[in-house]
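User: Can you fold this complex?
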Amino acid sequence: MSIRLESGPVVVGRAVSTGAASPSPASPETAPVIFDIKGLNVYYRDFHAVADTDLDIHRNEITALIGPSGCGKSTVLRCFNRMNDLIDGARVEGRVLYHGIDLYGPAVDAVEVRRRIGMVFQKPNPFPKSVYENIVFGPKVAGWKGNLDDLVEESLRRAALWDEVKDKLDGSALDLSGGQQQRLCIARAIATSPDVVLMDEPCSALDPIATYRIESLMRELKEQYTIVVVTHNMQQAARVSDRTAFFSVDVGEEGQRTGRLVEYDATDQVFTAPSLKETEDYITGRFG
Amino acid sequence: MLDTSASLDLSGDPRRLRRERNVRWLFLSAAVFTILVSIAIVLSLVGEAVAFLQSIAAEIDEGLGALIADGWFPRRDRFDLRTIIWHTLAVSIIAMAVATPLGLGAAVYLSEYAKAGVRRVLKPVLEILAGIPSVVLGYFALRFITPDILRNIWDTTQQSNLMAAGIGVGILIIPLVSSVSEDAMQAVPRDLREASYGLGAKKWHTSMRVVFPAALSGIVAALILGLSRAIGETMVVAIVAGATGGSLLQLNPLNGGQTMTGAMASLAIGSDQVAGGVAAFQSLFFVGLLLFLMTLVLNIGSERLVRRFRQRY
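Assistant: Here's the predicted assembly.
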């Protein structure tokens, strides 16, 4: 599939919710839209995990998805690179337009999608192989031809890990500390030259210092990549993200929990003047 | 309010304590009994094996040279170990050549490719294969593999032959190999698969470059287990390998030949090759001891291999 990076007029900050109050557009700057999601519904068999979500993701920005447990933020993130395909019984409805192409369209191969949209997971999950092998895995399986040594150095430098591991490239990745492992996973994700990097609570298993390093890394990386991050940590969303999407949970009559997007706006706006009481309660720690 | 310490008794109910002691003894004796039986088996093997060596050294003209003779004919005092060991190895190699690709292929399919519903059906079916008595497989090899397959390829195939025995034993150990290696692959954390798919790897790459290496120690264990089983398998070779009491060394697997277990089974079948001489009878214990040592070495070797290949995750 060939991808044209769109540059035309773009609606920005279009926060859409199914609730009564639709927050007004904010944020004047116009970064091109990478993902345009409309009417997204995700089901796991009979369980309705995410309902009617509309969301735009903008280029070279960090978008944070926040909300209480079970609100479907990770589920939404996993729609961006079709990771939900791996779960038996998962069903996605609605459109996930990536540069105008519906990722769930008939002619789209999930493998191609994931080569352009990298992912970093909650728990650092390096392969039980050497540091070097971890980095070259993605490019190799994609049939990439080029200088692997240079690629390894370049990727590790971008992930701010090169100085720490340059002498142990052949050592096991599992001998690194948790924070180093997570930066290795970031280096591994960007070694395939993705367009977007998805991060699913990338710091939840890390200590504050390692978290701080990942956050500064994210700010550097957004110069080249578009980042979508799921986080439980309100301060982290406030510190690193440009836009924040707040998800909430509707509890049905029989206790079934369905997540939906309730507020989406520039991060400053969401954290200083949220348009919904629900959002305010959550970010000020009154529930969640 | 304050109770005096005199009325506080923390020593426990003596009946309960006695019962716990008894249960402990019960389980301990079960464990000890098992170990004692194993030791008794080894001792009886060693005793008869030594007696065998002494008797051929004393009574046969060639002495211990009878262990390297012209074929395995116990009744004629020809105990050529090369013959039966080679035939056992030939059957085992053929069996592994059958069971390794099919067993591992089935394991990769079940673990990585099959949808949950398909696995729920296929796995028990595969395990039914493990429940087929080996005697049935022996006749299957005799009546189907030899006449309908091997003779169509090589028309000089003998009625009883090592190839059919090897294929039969191979089919017999497929479920073992696939089930143990599938368990090893299932034990590889989901995290690693997600990491691989997240990098745009296809199922093939994820299976071969991530799951397979991470499960390698378990897979090696499965293969060694299969090999031990192949070496020790008796019924199929007794029926189809050409266990007519004795044989010459056969390099061509399309001919019949006596294997180690086949030689031992001859006694049970009542072949007159072993009915006579004392040495012939004792020779079977000697072969049994050799079999025991071979599987022991394999198990120790696999333990080491597994530790060397182990990928922590």
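Residues 18-64 of chain B form one domain. Chain B has a mean pLDDT of 85.
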